[in-house]
Design goal:
By secondary structure, this protein is of the alpha+beta class. It is built from 19 helices and 13 strands. The model is unreliable at 319-324 and 540-553 (pLDDT under 50).
């Protein structure tokens, strides 16, 4: 007959084995729900994520984006033990973050500003983390998830404005370096005049292709750098001055080479300093900065820079178990599915498309102006993805023409929208030497517009452009996007157009003469555009005024 103590021991072993099996089964079910939640997030944000990959592929400034998810996974792997040990009670706060992500995603879909949807995906990952293991798990996983933000490109219109400002700043620094060699030099906008040769600091020379990857590198370096918070903050924000200084040095060296050995040698120097050479140099400066800061604290470089050992956070006790404990995660999963369905319905909803005349019927005679239409290159037209357009040169008897370009989009909901001239003009080899917001017309009926001076190979032109958005005449691209979102929600409309006028400043002319020609043309043009760019029946014709962004001429 078995001893009572032996029987009690056997029962205890069986109960322990059953408990372990139950925990394993629960862990498997929980892992399955987590995997399903992440896949649901990928599906819900698929359109924005595909746009993300496209930007990585087509824009050199963001080609580093492919490495960001890899680094994030590596960061999670280095703290895997802490992650498992930090799984606590699922938090309903995750549902709040999923709701926020859903709102951001819908905003991005309606306004075609994909950065909202891409940021929403990161917010959704934070929400899923809370739904899995609560705040204790989020504290351990927070840094790797947030690091994904560095893979998200800025909207094109922000990129263009930032690029223009960096071109001007890099040009000034380049001239400073050139003057250090006692070389006479003159700067006009982003054109460096060396007398016998002119250097144009174009869009590719702005430094953005170094700044964006260096920002992610400095974030990672600040995370690996074990130092006081002020030193880590200094490392994090040093990427901006390092990039600007190195880019200015690069431009300066090209200018010195032109002066000493001619433009052909300068082209070789320019190509040598492009791409990875400058980025590696920036990385060396960053490492030197960390070395000096570490020495201030009395440590060596490798003592201060290493992967941290992340201790598990104290997990909240699980008072709930089984399916009850996973309710927040299941709720997050259901909400993600709802977000995906809502996104699908929004992107496939039929919009209100107003009736309008097509530009093929646009008159070739406007007052005393006679026009001659032309066509875009088929490849360019395909890339612009526009609904309708007109491209024509109008002139009077003096043959001093005004080039008219109007691009109309029946819908901007899926990302197709007017391309900013701040992107297209530099892409065509022109340098923007001055940019401002101004207006034309009588008080109360002013036409807001952007005025740019552009130059190429000694030729100067003046550009006027604005956006015609469902009856609103808008100069600012930021306000244009805001009204796009507002009208998409309230009116189910996202149609809009870009209107651009260009004229040459001919020899013997002043800028004000070219301005007068553009304004005389606008006087005859604007009344004829109304049938081709439909307004809002309620709004009628309205304008949106903004403060100047440059000096008046």
């Amino acid at each position: 007959m078995p001893h009572p103590a032996s029987l009690s021991f056997d029962q205890g072993v069986k109960m322990s084995v059953q408990s372990i099996n139950l925990e394993k089964a629960s862990a498997i079910r929980g892992s399955l729900v987590v995997i399903i939640a992440v896949l649901a997030g990928l599906a819900a944000f698929s359109g924005a994520l595909l746009e993300l990959v496209r930007r990585w592929t087509t824009q050199e400034e963001y080609s580093h984006g492919f490495f960001i998810p890899v680094v994030a996974v590596w960061l999670l792997w280095t703290r895997r033990d802490a992650l498992f040990a930090s799984i606590g009670r699922p938090a309903w706060a995750g549902l709040v973050l999923i709701l926020l992500a859903m709102f951001m995603h819908i905003t991005g879909e309606l306004s075609a500003i994909f950065v909202f949807s891409q940021l929403a995906f990161v917010v959704a990952l934070l929400g899923i983390t809370l739904g899995v293991g609560g705040f204790s798990l989020l504290r351990v996983a927070f840094v790797p998830i947030i690091f994904l933000i560095f893979a998200i490109p800025l909207p094109y219109f922000i990129d263009a404005n930032l690029s223009l400002q960096l071109q001007l700043l890099s040009s000034q620094l380049g001239v400073f370096f050139i003057k250090l060699f006692q070389i006479p030099v003159y700067l006009e906008g982003n054109v460096i005049d060396l007398g016998t040769f002119k250097l144009q600091v174009v869009d590719a020379c702005s430094g953005l292709r170094y700044l964006y990857p260096l920002l992610s590198l400095t974030f990672l370096a600040a995370y690996l750098f074990h130092a006081p918070i002020w030193q880590r903050a200094l490392v994090l924000f040093s990427s901006i001055p390092i990039t600007i200084a190195m880019n200015g040095f690069r431009i300066g060296m090209v200018g010195v080479t032109v002066d000493r050995w001619g433009p052909q040698t300068a082209e070789g120097v320019l190509h040598f300093f492009e791409g990875w050479i400058i980025f590696v140099a920036c990385g060396i400066l960053l490492a030197a900065e960390i070395y000096l800061l570490a020495r201030i604290s009395g440590r060596g470089f490798f003592e201060a820079v290493h992967v941290p050992e992340v201790a598990p956070k104290l997990a909240s006790p699980r008072s709930e178990s089984g399916s009850t404990g996973r309710r927040p995660l299941i709720a997050c999963l259901l909400l993600l599915c709802t977000a995906g369905l809502t996104s699908f319905l929004i992107t496939n909803r039929s919009e209100t498309t107003p009736e309008r005349s097509r530009f093929v019927t646009f008159p070739t005679t406007l007052g005393e102006w006679q026009g001659h239409t032309s066509l875009l290159d088929p490849q360019v037209e395909h890339g612009l993805a526009l609904e309708d357009y007109i491209l024509a040169d109008y002139s009077k008897a003096d043959d001093r023409a005004v080039n008219l370009y109007v691009a109309y989009y029946a819908s901007q909901r899926k990302g197709e929208s007017p391309h900013s001239p701040l992107v297209c003009i530099p892409g065509d080899g022109w340098s923007i030497t001055r940019l401002e917001q101004t207006s034309y017309g009588n008080p109360g009926r002013e036409q807001p517009l952007n005025r740019a001076i552009i130059e190429r190979n000694g030729s100067k032109q003046i550009v006027y452009y604005w956006y015609d958005e469902r009856g609103r005449k808008i100069a600012s691209e930021y306000w244009s996007k805001w009204y796009l979102l507002l009208d998409a929600i309230t009116k189910n409309r996202s149609d809009g157009a870009l209107v651009r006028l260009i004229t040459t400043v001919f020899p013997g002319e002043l800028e004000r003469d070219a301005d007068e020609r553009l304004q005389l043309f606008m006087r005859d043009l604007l009344p004829r555009l109304s049938g081709y760019l439909p307004a809002d029946p309620v709004l009628g014709i309205t304008t949106v005024q903004h403060r100047p962004i440059g000096s008046q001429t």
